[in-house]
Amino acid sequence: MVTIASVLLDGFTHEAKQVRVVIEATQGVDPKFQAKQGMRTLVQLSNHLAQSPQMDLAVLLGEIAKPEQAQAMEKKLNRDSLPDILKVFDQGVDSVSKYVKKLTDKEILDPKVKPFYEQGPPKRWVDYLQELTTHMAMHKMQLWMYLKLAGKQVDMMTYYGVKH
């Protein structure tokens, strides 16, 4: 049976597969590369992108209730090597997938989710699952642009998750 969660997870996991290819493409690029002074380095951006599924889920579940907790979790999840960064990403994608698969259509449509940063009334999981996916997509494009600026031979096929 098709559920709302399964449809949303299809989009999330599709984006995650593309993200993984872009993160993998950082191999061989100077991890200290910055697009412009004052911006994140390549490794900092890679870490942020890799951490986003796990971090976003923790915020939505109320495990992170203030910015200081988010900063502490980011620090804990930071990695230096590409294989370790990918491991954090894979674990986050798996955690989101496992959690969402357990949600019923009623739970996914019930407005009971309110991250600490949100103003106004609680929203639905359906709203935030789309936000998780677009959060990854936005940073995927940012990382892809860093790679282009660093001189890495990436193209739209890389962006769309096709390995060369």
Task: Write a compact overview of the structure shown.
The protein is mainly α and about 160 residues long. About 65% of the residues lie in helices and about 0% in strands.
Structural features, described:
With 164 residues, the protein is an all-alpha fold. The protein has a single domain (4-159), classed as Up-down Bundle (Four Helix Bundle (Hemerythrin (Met), subunit A)), CATH 1.20.120.450. The chain has helices at 4-24, 42-60, 67-77, 82-101, 105-109, 125-149, 156-159. The longest helix is centred in the last third of the chain and has 25 residues, at 125-149. The model has no long low-confidence stretch (mean pLDDT 96).
Overall strand count: 0
Structural class: mainly alpha
Overall radius of gyration: 16 Å
Q: N-to-C SSE series?
A: HHHHHHH
CATH architecture call: Up-down Bundle
Average pLDDT, all residues: 96
Question: Uncertain runs with pLDDT below 50, 5 residues or more?
Answer: none
